[in-house]
């Protein structure tokens, strides 16, 4: 019979149960080859992964499944998220202390004694910095530990899933030995960007945003509304900056790469045929064709960057003008104005720094899909089927009319009506 282009063996006089017994015999040899791997699982690192987190739920998102795989480190992740929340609350807290310095300068102008107050403010600033240090250590250290444990767990499970596959799976170009080892080395570490690292950045950003908005509205809701009015423009321009930078880097990396790779991979052939000039000319033409695109990119990036820098000055001008109007009208005092402005500025800076640590989720999601696709795949040649004989089998084994071909090379038969006899050892 034939299934998926693979012609299976036909055993004369053999029933399905006998075929299962033959496959179970091959299992005994494979079990000894994986004994060391199983022993490492018995130490409590991977043995319960497949039991606790089923791999057949394809409807689940990559993020949800990754969090399930990171469930054993739930306590460490919770403490790391707590450190991220405290780290996010530090930014607006420091802004309030910074605003108090304006009151101190005002008292200096009035000739008041401010030494004790200055010492108090500087001491509180130092304490806030120390708390920030501890919070950052908890956040990145504990979340890094959870990420490394997740990487080890996923890498072991992915390696076991690869070992379960049938020989035809390894014959595919995307499943060659070098590619599979590269997947074990590169794809597994990508998942920690989805769970702990991403969650820490989100928690820190939420803490900064919520506390900043509350304090800004508390001290002056008018100034807070003006700040929020400029927020969509800042976000839009920031997104354009990121897109232009990524597009610029991507085009630069891709242009002519195929020509370079082709010429260097066959450098001896190129030298023997004297084709160095041909490839150099082709690469030069590729660069010339891309010159216009690069020029337009530089112009657009300059305009977007100028807008990003200019909007910040327009925002400050509007805020200080409105603050002067409110102070002149008696509805706002100088201390409250500086507190509201400082909280908004420090909150925006802290949010930008937190967002800069946000990992590249596109590559992480792609790696996660590839990993879970391999883990969910059911092998077409399950060596665990059949009964394991309690006593050694004695008898002659004969194979008749064995036909075999790999699924990726259906027209090339490896075995053509092969016949083999194996006498009793």
UniProtKB/TrEMBL annotation:
Spans through the membrane: 74-98, 118-143, 201-219
Biased composition (Polar residues): 23-37
Residue intervals of the ABC transmembrane type-1 domain: 78-363
Domain of life of the native organism: Eukaryota
Biased segments, Basic and acidic residues type: 1-12
GO terms for biological process, alphabetical: oligopeptide export from mitochondrion
Membrane disposition: Multi-pass membrane protein
InterPro entries tied to this protein: ABC1_TM_dom, ABC1_TM_sf, Type_1_exporter
Subcellular location: Membrane
Protein name: ABC transmembrane type-1 domain-containing protein
Annotated organism of origin: Mesocestoides corti (Flatworm)
